[in-house]
Amino acid sequence: MSNGNWKFKTQDGSIYGPSDTATMRKWIQEDRVLANDYISPESVENWQPAKSLAEFADLFVAKVTPAEKQCQ
Fold first, then answer.
1. Is the terminal CB of the chain with fewer CB neighbours within 10 Å at N or C?
2. Parallel, antiparallel, or unpaired for β 15-20 and 5-9?
3. Model pTM?
């Protein structure tokens, strides 16, 4: 996992950051950064969807809600 700083771009084009990996992971868990928002290392312009980056992909795995568990 990268310990560098990241910036992210929302679907409306707003850019936030830089923030470290731990903060970005927290923001993803809080739904402040969404799967299709773009993330780039702070030092370069290399925008990629958040869900496609190894550092964050595990946070976008589909979660089963309690209601869905009852239907199984």
1. C
2. antiparallel
3. 0.77
Label residue 61 by pLDDT band (50, 70, 90): confident
| Count, residues in the chain | 72
Mean pLDDT of 16-23: 95
CA distances from 51 to 23, 34, 62 (A): 16, 8, 11
DSSP structure string for 29-67: HTTSS-TTSEEEETTS---EEGGGSTTTGGGGSPPPPHH
Question: Facing residues of 39 across strands?
Answer: 8, 48
